[in-house]
Each structure stands twice: as structure tokens, then as C-alpha cells.
């Protein structure tokens, strides 16, 4: 039946004219009849063909290639592609970095000095990886070696390009330059051509086929330290004294900067050298992240023109977005995670504990030996998982401060479900005095940008006139660090 329909509709109606040519009138009547049949039957045939063939086979999609969807303004305008993006054009950009050339003179090329930490973290959230990468990149810089970077790896054991997050298919790895640029990702160090540029792992394997492998689980001249500043000083000293051209930390050991280092208040002792490091001072988000912010800025702050170049790029170094309050409200896994934080008597992450910050956290009475009283749990939840009423009260309080003068817009950085976020939006608008309230879920992102949306949120939070964050969150902590590099007043950075 489907074959007969195809034959009917694939032939020109003029091919069905009688061949005897005895009567032009009868020919016209015959043609008119067949044309009417064609146009009245076509819709029914299309519907039948769609449900019989296209839909069962999954063929009725915009494109089977994620790259095609990445070119449009918002992936939600089209059916969701069957697979995540592969970012191949960004991998190609990394492969063609000019420093990937063995004939370059020292300090690069075949005579250059390189540092690769094979034991860096993976299978973690982006911000846990970013915390460590900033420190590793600075270690390479301070020891006058080229930093060797890997992609952001969610699932390093995946044999293909894809992995799973819950029931969702996600990229197993994302190239670093899809998230960040600057010296950490291969960009030059400004006004310092003596420093070798970062390279990717593939080039390191080529230029250093037989690197010196050293264990990375023991701090030189110290054992088991949790002090990031101490670890950095000792490792810089060790690498500066090594004459080996290529250093590779053994991947079978734990990280030299474990995750708990960034949760310690002692982390702020690293600030004197971190504040001067080009890894932080010249830290820049990727063009993919910047373009997402530029495309959505009119939704967040309608009155802004931003400081874009004629080619549509955001001006760097970044400037504050006046009139904007950004708030980070973590939900999702924090519904359970905050409970664990209370039972471990956890305090704010290190970068969130500078003494000049207004909002501090003291472990309440009632937390001891892994037990937490209901009263103490309420204290943790108010700061870690605030409800609508607590969010509204905090924002109302912050609006009364001098740093909040001129605030007209709110951007809510959140992984909350849409209903929860939309209800909060309505309540904030009902407070009065706000021109706009937008959330992460209101952003129009391409298919490629969807999988790096945390970084998009962070650039907005980094530039906001005032920022309120979650003191235990690594996303908040990294945003706070970047704001500090922009010299925001301490009172413009707050916590729940």
C-alpha cells in the first residue's frame, strides 16, 4: 500500500494524461480529477508514513549531528538530538595550538620543560576539577614549566565519547577550551614571553616520550598536609630543583591537592601568591561561554549594552554588571548533601572564609561525634538549603546595604526544578522594586552550551554587582575567587 502511494505521488500528474489526444476537454477533466485525488490523499499518506516508518525508527528529528543543532540560537527550538555534542571543532583548535611544535626554541619545543599531573581528579563536578586545575597550573607556572592539560573528564573509563549521568546521556569528556581559555588552557602569559605556554596531553606524549615519573601522594618534606599553601611551596621547591625536562606525576596515586584542601580555612593563606598569579589574573572563560552570556544578557539586564567589541565578544578583563544581583541557590543533590555536611560539622569552603566577609558560619552547638540535634540541623539548612522565605528575607536584608544601591535585576543560578524556581521568581517580583528576575532555566543556550551551563552561570555571578552564594559549594567558592580577582568590595560578596 505504501509503495503504491509512493508511485502515485512521485509521478507528475501530466504523465497520467490519455494518450489518444482525441479530446482536450476530456484530458483536462482527467487531469483535474487526478490532481484532486493527489492533494486530498497526500496529508493522509504523510500521516500514515510518519507513524508507520519515521516515528518508530526515530528519523523525525532536526538532525542526527549535534553540531548542526549547536549552530542555532537555542537547542529547545528543535527536537533534542539523540546524542550530546562531541566538541570536535574545539579539540581540533587545541590540536593546532601554535606551541604544539617541537621545533620551537626553549622554553618550548623539544628542549622545553613540562609538568603533567596524571593523578588529577576526574569523575567529579566541574568546579571540583577547576579548583585543582588552578593550583596545578600555577604550580607549573611557578616552577617554570609548561602545564599539560587534559579534557574535563566525567568518565575517563568510557571507551567512547558518551557516558551517563543518571538516566541522561552526557559527554564522557569535554575539551578544556570549551570551558576556559587563558594561560591554563594554552593561552600566552601577558607581557611574559619567557614562560612556556600550556600544551595538551597528546603533544606532551609526543615531545616527552619517556618522562620522569614521580609519586604524587606524598608532600615533599611533609606527610599528609591539608594546607594548600604548604603543599604548593614544597612542590614548587621540588620541581625547581629537578633537572629532568619532563615530569609526570604517577596517575595511580591520589592528587597532590586533594578536594579537602579547598574546604580548609587555611586555604586563604595562599592568597598572596594566588592574587599575583597570571593563572588567576588572566583567567578567562571560553568563547563558547562568553557568547552564551552575551546572547542572554538582554534577558537578565535588559537595559545593558555591555562592553562588547564590534565582533560580538565580551570585553576582557571583565567588568561588573551594574544593577545586577546574582544568587546561587543549590538544590538537587544538596537536599541530601547538606545533611551530611551537618553530621561532619563542616564549615564554609576555604575561599569563602576571608575575615573581611560579612557572612560567616560557626558550627552550632548540638553537633558532636556525628550526631546533630534538630536545632543544629535547622541552622545548617538555613545556610545550606534555604527555603523561599529564607531566600526572600536574605535578599531583602542585602538590599538595605550600600553595596546594593541601584540593584534592579536578579539572576538566580540554580539547579532547582522549574516549578520551585518559577515560584521563587513570582515571590521576588511580588517583593517589589525588581525590574526582572531570571533563572538558569530561562537561558537560551545552544546544544554545546547546554552541557557547560554551570560555567555560563559563573561568568554572570562573577560580574554581578552583588553576589549571594552557598558557602559550602565549590561553584560558589570558585565564583568568589574570580570576583576577588576583579577587586570587588568584600561586602559585595555574601552568603546564605
How would you describe this structure in keywords?
disordered N terminus; 3 domains; Rossmann fold; 13% strand; globular; 5-stranded parallel beta sheet; alpha/beta; 17 helices; 496 residues
Describe the structure.
InterPro entries: GDP-Fuc_O-FucTrfase (IPR019378). Pfam families: O-FucT. GO terms for molecular function: transferase activity. By secondary structure, this protein is of the alpha/beta class. The chain folds into 3 domains: 2-57; 97-281, no CATH class; 286-495, Rossmann fold (3-Layer(aba) Sandwich). It is built from 17 helices and 18 strands. The chain has helices spanning 2-10, 24-57, 66-70, 88-95, 126-142, 201-207, 228-241, 271-274, 278-281, 287-300, 334-343, 374-384, 388-398, 418-431, 447-450, 453-463, 474-485, and strands at residues 114-117, 146-149, 152-153, 162-165, 168-171, 173-174, 180-181, 199-200, 212-214, 246-249, 284-285, 321-329, 367-368, 371-372, 409-414, 436-439, 464-469, 493-495. The strands form 6 sheets. It has a 5-stranded parallel β-sheet with strand order 8-2-1-10-9. A 5-stranded parallel β-sheet has the order 16-15-12-17-18, with helices on both faces. It has a two-stranded antiparallel sheet with strand order 3-6. Helix 1 (2-10) crosses helix 2 and helix 10 packs across helix 16. It starts with a helix and ends with a strand.
Amino acid at each position: 500500500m505504501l509503495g503504491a502511494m509512493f508511485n502515485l505521488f512521485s509521478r507528475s500528474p501530466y504523465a497520467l494524461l490519455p494518450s489518444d489526444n482525441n479530446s482536450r476537454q476530456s484530458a483536462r477533466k482527467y487531469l483535474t480529477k487526478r490532481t484532486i485525488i493527489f492533494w486530498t490523499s497526500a496529508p493522509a499518506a504523510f500521516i500514515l508514513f510518519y507513524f508507520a516508518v519515521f516515528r518508530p525508527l526515530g528519523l523525525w528529528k532536526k538532525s542526527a549531528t549535534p553540531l548542526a543543532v549547536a549552530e542555532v540560537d537555542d537547542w529547545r527550538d528543535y527536537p533534542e538530538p539523540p546524542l550530546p555534542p562531541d566538541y570536535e571543532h574545539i579539540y581540533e583548535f587545541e590540536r593546532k595550538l601554535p606551541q604544539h611544535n617541537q621545533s620551537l626554541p626553549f622554553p618550548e619545543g623539544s628542549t622545553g620543560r613540562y609538568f603533567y599531573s596524571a593523578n588529577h581528579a576526574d569523575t567529579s563536578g566541574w568546579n571540583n576539577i577547576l579548583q585543582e586545575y588552578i593550583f596545578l597550573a600555577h604550580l607549573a607556572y611557578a616552577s617554570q614549566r609548561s602545564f599539560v592539560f587534559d579534557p574535563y573528564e566525567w568518565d575517563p573509563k568510557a571507551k567512547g565519547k558518551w557516558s551517563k549521568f543518571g538516566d541522561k546521556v552526557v559527554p564522557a569528556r569535554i575539551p578544556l577550551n570549551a570551558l576556559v581559555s587563558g594561560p591554563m588552557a594554552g593561552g600566552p602569559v601577558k607581557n611574559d614571553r619567557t614562560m612556556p605556554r600550556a600544551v595538551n596531553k597528546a603533544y606532551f606524549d609526543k615531545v616527552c616520550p619517556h618522562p620522569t615519573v614521580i609519586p604524587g601522594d606524598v608532600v615533599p618534606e611533609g606527610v599528609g598536609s591539608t594546607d594548600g599553601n604548604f603543599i604548593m611551596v614544597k612542590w614548587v621547591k621540588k620541581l625547581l630543583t629537578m633537572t629532568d625536562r619532563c615530569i609526570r606525576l604517577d596517575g595511580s596515586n591520589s592528587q597532590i591537592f586533594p578536594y579537602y584542601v579547598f574546604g580548609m580555612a587555611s586555604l586563604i593563606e595562599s592568597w598572596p601568591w594566588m592574587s599575583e598569579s597570571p593563572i588567576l589574573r588572566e583567567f578567562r572563560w571560553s568563547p563558547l561561554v562568553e557568547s552564551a552570556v552575551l546572547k542572554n544578557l538582554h534577558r537578565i539586564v535588559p537595559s545593558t549594552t555591555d562592553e562588547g567589541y564590534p565582533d560580538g565578544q565580551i570585553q576582557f578583563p571583565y567588568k561588573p554588571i551594574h544593577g545586577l544581583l546574582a544568587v546561587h541557590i543549590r538544590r538537587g543533590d544538596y537536599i541530601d548533601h547538606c545533611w551530611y555536611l551537618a553530621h561532619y560539622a563542616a564549615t564554609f569552603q576555604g575561599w569563602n572564609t576571608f575575615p573581611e566577609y560579612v557572612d560567616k558560619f560557626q558550627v552550632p552547638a548540638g553537633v558532636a561525634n556525628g550526631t546533630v540535634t534538630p536545632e543544629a540541623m535547622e541552622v545548617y539548612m538555613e545556610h545550606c538549603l534555604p527555603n523561599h522565605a529564607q531566600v526572600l528575607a536574605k535578599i531583602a536584608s542585602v538590599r538595605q546595604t550600600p553595596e546594593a544601591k541601584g540593584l534592579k535585576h536578579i539572576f538566580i543560578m540554580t539547579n532547582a526544578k522549574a516549578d520551585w524556581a518559577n515560584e521563587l521568581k513570582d515571590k521576588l517580583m511580588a517583593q517589589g522594586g525588581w525590574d526582572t528576575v531570571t533563572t538558569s532555566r530561562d537561558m537560551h543556550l545552544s546544544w554545546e552550551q547546554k552541557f557547560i551551563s554551570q560555567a555560563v552561570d559563573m561568568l554572570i555571578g562573577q560580574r554581578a554587582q552583588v553576589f549571594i552564594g552557598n558557602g559550602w559549594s565549590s561553584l560558589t567558592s570558585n565564583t568568589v575567587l574570580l570576583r576577588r580577582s576583579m577587586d570587588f568590595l568584600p561586602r559585595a560578596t555574601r552568603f546564605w
